[in-house]
């Protein structure tokens, strides 16, 4: 089976047999290079890591972290298991000459220690604060439809140039409608879904038989820069006002 895509948000809202069993895994750093202490920055008055993980109260959550603050603060959540990051992974992160993330090593450690082969695994990041449980419950079902992986993406259908300003997906000699040009899909760290045995076999969060699940604009927000942080703070305040 070849890779496929979710077609629309309306389709996203139409498929449901909840709840769905899944184990949530994430890794939280004590600090980050581009947005200092971003995992502890507050969204609507709550530290971002807590803002993100509190929504998973009905699911087992596992956190790999190098933060003593996380290890001491997370105990109030009965559904969350936090453990200290392996020194090999910390060394990889601290080595300025190393270009490889330890994400797969951390995922492997989690899968080996905390899962059974048929468990549904969701790898997510607390830097995607607006990812909804409803979306994850929908996405995980594609594993039972024959896909090995489900991965979050964002769709951009607009005029694009390469690094040399050559047109990539449009003809500059004519005026085209954006809806008529080929879209691009960008990988998001919001989630990677797979069966535990699939990861054990392939040592990968994504592969050939992947369903690429398109997220809406809000759920696509990923905090990677200071501007992203400002946007997330605005959205969080707006969501709070809408429901209060």
Written description of the protein model:
The chain is an alpha/beta fold and 244 residues long. It has one domain (4-243): Alpha-Beta Complex (Spore Coat Polysaccharide Biosynthesis Protein SpsA, Chain A). Helices cover 28% and strands 21% of the residues. It is built from 8 helices and 10 strands. The protein has helices at 9-12, 48-53, 68-73, 87-94, 103-114, 133-140, 196-202, 226-243, and strands at residues 4-5, 23-28, 42-43, 46-47, 61-65, 80-84, 120-124, 149-156, 184-195, 210-214. Strands 1-10-8-9-7-2-5-6 form an 8-stranded mixed beta sheet, with helices on both faces. Strand 3 and strand 4 (46-47) form a beta hairpin. It is globular, with a radius of gyration of 19 Å. Residues 5-19 have low confidence and may be disordered.
Give the integer mean of the pLDDT values: 88
Termini Cα gap: 45 Å
Q: State the CATH architecture.
A: Alpha-Beta Complex
Shape: globular
| Radius of gyration over C-alpha positions, nearest whole angstrom | 19 Å
Task: Give the helix level as a range of percent.
Answer: 25-40%
Can you tell me the number of structural domains?
Answer: 1
Quickly give the structural class.
Answer: alpha/beta
Total helical segments: 8
What amount of the residues lies in strands?
15-25%
CATH class: Alpha Beta
Q: How would you name the CATH homologous superfamily?
A: Spore Coat Polysaccharide Biosynthesis Protein SpsA, Chain A
Biggest sheet layout: 8 strands, mixed
Strand order of the largest sheet: 1-10-8-9-7-2-5-6
């Amino acid at each position: 089976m070849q890779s496929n895509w979710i077609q629309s948000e309306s389709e996203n809202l139409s498929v449901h047999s909840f709840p769905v069993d899944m184990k949530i895994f994430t890794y939280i750093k004590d600090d980050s290079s581009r947005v200092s202490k971003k995992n502890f920055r507050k969204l609507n008055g709550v530290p971002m890591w807590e803002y993100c993980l509190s929504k998973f109260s009905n699911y087992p959550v596992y956190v790999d972290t190098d933060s003593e603050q996380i290890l001491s603060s997370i105990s109030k959540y009965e559904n969350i298991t936090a453990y200290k990051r392996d020194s090999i992974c910390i060394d990889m992160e601290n080595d300025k000459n190393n270009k490889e993330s330890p994400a797969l090593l951390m995922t492997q450690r989690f899968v080996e220690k905390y899962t059974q082969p048929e468990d549904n695994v969701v790898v997510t990041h607390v830097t995607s604060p607006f990812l909804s449980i409803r979306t994850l419950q929908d996405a995980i079902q594609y594993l039972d439809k024959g896909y090995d992986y489900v991965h979050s993406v964002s769709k951009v259908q607009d005029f694009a140039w390469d690094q040399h300003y050559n047109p990539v997906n449009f003809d500059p000699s004519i005026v085209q409608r954006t809806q008529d040009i080929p879209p691009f899909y960008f990988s998001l760290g919001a989630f990677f879904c797979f069966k535990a045995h699939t990861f054990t076999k392939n040592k990968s969060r994504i592969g050939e038989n992947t369903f690429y699940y398109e997220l809406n604009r809000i759920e696509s927000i990923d905090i990677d820069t200071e501007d992203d942080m400002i946007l997330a703070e605005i959205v969080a305040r707006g969501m709070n006002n809408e429901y209060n």
